[in-house]
Amino acid sequence: MLKGKQMSVLLIVLTCVILGVFGQLLMKKGLNTLPNAISIRDLFSKEVFSVIFQRYVFIGIVLYILASLLWLVALSQEELSFIYPLIAIGYVFTAILGKFLFHENLTMFRFFGILLICGGVYLIVLKI
Q1: Which secondary-structure segment (H or E) carries 109?
Q2: Which of 62, 76, 86, 96 is the most exposed, having the fewest neighbouring CB atoms within 10 Å of its CB?
Q3: Contact in structure between 23 and 43 (CB atoms under 8 Å)
Q4: pLDDT of the chain, 128 residues: tens digit per residue
Q5: Annotated domain spans of the chain
């Protein structure tokens, strides 16, 4: 059974995951609207501002910042070795939503990897 503090931390981590997932999805949506893929060189030029201030990219970055601030709360309340692996569930949500929203390729190998991540997160939470 989950204790009150652990449940609170799990809710904070889950909120971080959700903010991170939607941040990724919005950044991807924004980047898909650009005429060309960006390069490392673009990140060190004035072109970076047109990328960062693209509406969806900007909102995604803001969500990431909010997730990072909440993450500080979670870090202060629980062991890193417990909460950090829980962030991996975000990979699962992002991959699945990427398949449906952006029609990305979700091969059997990727799907199997997602199942392994789910199993690992389950084992971590099971120990509570």
Answers
A1: helix 108-126
A2: 76
A3: no
A4: 456 777 899 999 999 999 999 999 999 999 999 999 999 999 999 999 999 999 999 999 999 999 999 999 999 999 998 899 999 999 999 999 999 999 999 999 999 999 999 999 998 888 66
A5: 4-126
The dihedral sign for the CA sequence 110, 116, 118, 120: negative
| pTM score, whole prediction | 0.88
Q: Is 21 exposed, middle or buried (0-12, 13-18, 19+ CB in 10 A)?
A: buried
φ/ψ of residue 47, rounded to 5: -60, -25
Q: What is the dihedral sign for C-alpha 100, 27, 58, 14?
A: positive
Instruction: Let me know: does 10 contact 86? Beta carbons within 8 Å.
Output: yes
